[in-house]
Amino acid sequence: MTEPSATGKIAIAAPPEKVYALVSDPGALADMAEEYEGHRWVGAAGAAVGAKFRGRNRHGIRRWSTLSTITDADEGKRFAFEVTTFAGLPVARWQYDIEASGDGCVAIESTWDRRPGWLRGPTSLFTGVWKRDDANRANIAATLARLKAAAETRV
């Protein structure tokens, strides 16, 4: 796999299992993420490899949905999903790696922009985000700060 197009990490004073429980729950993740605001399971009832969920996203007044398929669900270590458009075109991979560290853990959030070159212009116009990598770096920093706050208050 190539290097992520945006990534960030943060130390969290909570056990890896607690952090994993938050990032692997699409409902909890919606409370922490910048653009992602909710989900609906599609033929599944929970986070397991192969499960799909329809994500609701927003940027300002713009709103859109995506379909995500969970690719990794290694409790306490990694949670990841591939995102596609309504037409099944690749959009991104989102991955959360959790490493035990001292009395807590380090959480690493990464994304890979998987859009074909020709799709970048139309999706930027649709979402209102022209510098996707820059936006994702800022979104990751905000999400990780909220993840830390949520995990440390729920310990």
Word description of this protein:
This protein is an alpha+beta fold and 155 residues long. Helices cover 31% and strands 41% of the residues. It has 4 helices and 7 strands; from the N terminus they run E-H-H-E-E-E-E-E-E-H-H. It has helices spanning 16-23, 26-32, 117-127, 132-153; strands at 6-12, 36-42, 52-59, 62-74, 78-84, 90-101, 104-113. It has a 7-stranded antiparallel beta sheet with strand order 1-7-6-5-4-3-2. The model has no long low-confidence stretch (mean pLDDT 94).
- Describe the oligomeric state of these chains in a short phrase: single chain
The percent of residues in helical segments reads 25-40%
Strand content: 35-45%
Number of helices: 4
SSE pattern: EHHEEEEEEHH
Mean pLDDT: 94
Name the shape in a single word. Answer: globular
- Determine the structural class based on helices, strands and strand pairing: alpha+beta
Uncertain regions spanning at least 5 consecutive residues: none
Q: Order of strands across the widest beta sheet?
A: 1-7-6-5-4-3-2
Count of strand segments: 7
Tell me the span between the first and last alpha carbons: 34 Å
Rg, please? 15 Å
Strand count, sense and barrel status of the largest sheet are: 7 strands, antiparallel
